[in-house]
Amino acid sequence: MRREIGSALAEVLVAVFIVVLLVLSIAAISPLTTRLQRQAEQRTFATNLAQTVLERIRTLDFLQITAQGLVAAGLGETIELNDTNLFRVRFTNLRLSNGETLSIAAHLRNGFCTVEVHNLTTANNISIGLKTVIVTVHWQEPVTDRWQQVRLATSVASLN
User: Fold this and answer.
1) Can you give the residue range of the structural domain that contains 69?
2) Of 3, 72, 142, 157, which residue is least crowded by CB atoms under 10 Å?
3) Mean per-residue pLDDT, 132-154
C-alpha cells in the first residue's frame, strides 16, 4: 500500500511538472504571436492602402498622371521630385473618394506613402505613352523601430 501511495505521488509530481512546462511555453510564445499578428495587420493595411492608391490612379486620365495632377486628385500632399520623365509625391493623409480623410499615421507608426511615376521614353527622350507607377507605403515598427515598406507597381498606357 505504501508503494502505491509513493508511485501515485510521483505520478502527480510528473503531471504537475508537465503542466507547468506547458503553461510556461504558452506564456513565452504569447508575446511573439501577438507581435507577429500586429505585423501581419500592418502589412495588410499597407498593402490595401497601396492597392487603393493604384486603383485611384488607374481611374485618372493619362495626362492627369503628373505630380500636380496627383496632388489635385488627393493622391499627394508634397511634391518631392518633379522632372519631366520622373516625379514623386508624398502624403500622410489620403483623401478618400467619399470625401473623408484617412490618416496613415493613425494606422501605421510614422506612416507615409509615396507615389513615383516614370514616364517611359525612347532614346531621343520622346514619350512612348507608357508610365510606370510605383506606390510605396512606409512605416516604423513599434517594437523594433525598424522601417518597413510595401511596394506595388503597375503600368499605365495612353489610349491616344
Assistant:
1) 49-157
2) 3
3) 95
| Cell triple for 30 | 504569447
Burial of residue 21, with CB atoms counted within 10 A of its CB: 0-12 exposed, 13-18 middle, 19 or more buried: exposed
Domain count, the chain: 1
Cell of 66: 503628373
Question: How far is the CA of 83 from the CAs of 80, 97, 145, in angstroms?
Answer: 10, 28, 33
pTM for this predicted structure: 0.80
Is 119 part of any domain?
Answer: yes
Residue 97 has pLDDT above 80, yes or no: no
pLDDT tens across 61-95, in order?
999 999 999 999 999 999 999 988 999 999 999 98
CA distance 107 to 40: 13
* Helix/strand/coil percentages in the chain, nearest 5: 45, 30, 25
- DSSP annotation of 137: E
